[in-house]
Amino acid sequence: MLVALTGAGISAESGVPTFRGEEGLWKRYDPSRLATPEAFQRDPKTVWEWYAWRREVIAKAEPNEAHRTLADLEREKGLWVITQNVDGLHQRAGSKKVIELHGNIWRVRCLSCGARFYDRRVPLKEIPPRCGKCGGLLRPDVVWFGEPLPEDALRKAYDLSARAEVFLVIGTSATVYPAAELPLIAKRSGAKVIEINPEETPLTPFADLSIRKGASEGLREVVGDLI
Ligand code: APR
Ligand code: ZN
């Protein structure tokens, strides 16, 4: 069983900013003001302006070679992608077996009637957007700091990690839990853990192989051994 855990770094080559590191979003913005339920409660307009901007950036992005390689590995070897990303680029590259641990920026949820649906409008005309059904306030259907991850996604991710023979970890700072625990579960269950990241992370010492390269170039190095 081949499994890949991906983070913002795999979409960096598509022009989607990462959160940490030199150019990271958390260098310019305060996550406690933009990515928590309290922030949204206090100021939904500002939170939505930030998400509307991120949606516009992501709408212009194309899947890159790394996304496409993982889609090829799904077709050839049944690879599962467990992603922390909300950009939907794995699916646009052709991956179907994708577990979104942190939700999807293109999906919204109504705080009044609970309706949950894809809203791909770019740019968003009305900010904050309202529910067409009940007029309630919509929120991005993503996981904010302090919120629980979708139960079924997390359960499936734990199960796949425990059954993986090879566990790729691509483009994540391996600092946000519970996602950061998955490679350690795979390692404990006997998987070969391969990390691809231009920088070292807290996971690096546990990896069987840690490739200090970008996602596309790093995958080129190992894909031959995986097919
Ligand atoms: N290829 C591979 N990795 C890269 C590349 C690249 N071209 N460019 C940067 N990276 C690496 C960085 O070295 C860093 O380790 O990608 C990682 C990105 O780390 P983060 O920005 O912390 O992103 P991520 O690990 O996905 O964050 C986890 O934190 O803010 C929350 O919910 C958000 O899902 C996100 C979670
Ligand atoms: Zn509603």
Number of strands: 9
What radius of gyration results from the CA coordinates?
Answer: 18 Å
Secondary-structure arrangement, i.e. CATH architecture of the largest domain = 3-Layer(aba) Sandwich
Broad shape: globular
Count of individual helical segments = 10
Q: How many structural domains are formed by the residues?
A: 2
Low-confidence stretches: none
Mean pLDDT: 97
**Spatial order of the strands forming the largest sheet:** 3-2-1-7-8-9
Ligand inventory reads: adenosine-5-diphosphoribose, zinc ion
Gap between N and C termini, in Å? 12 Å
Please summarize the sheet with the most strands: 6 strands, parallel
CATH level-1 class of the largest domain: Alpha Beta
Series of secondary-structure elements, N-terminal to C-terminal: EHHHHHHEHEEEEHEHEEH
CATH superfamily of the largest domain: TPP-binding domain
SS-based structural class? alpha/beta
CATH fold annotation of the largest domain: Rossmann fold
